[in-house]
């Protein structure tokens, strides 16, 4: 496979193969382990994604930060009986299928994975905007239940000062508060936050306002009727060996997903696609 001059395959952290993209419209780093986007910078801008300094790159677990892919299930699956947590694809080594330059100065990278009768394709569009498109096809001969999440970790200046627009009055559930919770106004993160929202599946935008970095992130889902907002806070950060104790204020996970009651049963030959688009703007 030939690569454009704006991309190179090389050994990254832990000697793991990763694709480096340095194109006129933006740069990125994608590990083949988990098809894990670990970095994205629009040209002239700063890093958008969070990556823990304690992230593990030995292939035994998902990389803490960036954009882990959760599939073919999320957490322990719709019935709570699946392992490993968040599915197998973030632990699998993907194949790089193609890397192409775009006329707008961006680059598209396409990765593929065949796993347990499912064929995954993942396109990462790197430029002034970030586009992530993940599809799964049931290549087996029996129906398969599938969940997927683009588990994005965004770098923020101070998570306690962050507000998230676009989720006001939408129903969410948490383990602590139960289901069908509602909150008026923007989401403010106070302590451990782990919410699953029901949102319009396509074209719904959430805005992460980050005054400490002076920017906002506009995150728009495609085929994703759930959004997850997660930050471990001081309460749970200590239980995580691949996240440093002082890092929780510096990121927020805002995930586009299709999980739980929205899990899809794919007939043989059927495909399910989800996506996310991220745009960075200065905060006025
Ligand atoms: O530690 P993991 O498996 O990467 O999961 C991190 C978090 O991922 C979030 O999506 C979940 O809602 C949280 O419950 C979970 O703690």
UniProtKB/TrEMBL annotation:
Keywords: Isomerase. It catalyses: alpha-D-glucose 6-phosphate = beta-D-glucose 6-phosphate. GO terms for cellular component: cytoplasm. Belongs to the glucose-6-phosphate 1-epimerase family. GO terms for biological process: carbohydrate metabolic process. Gene3D superfamilies: 2.70.98.10. This is Putative glucose-6-phosphate 1-epimerase. It holds the Pfam family Aldose_epim.
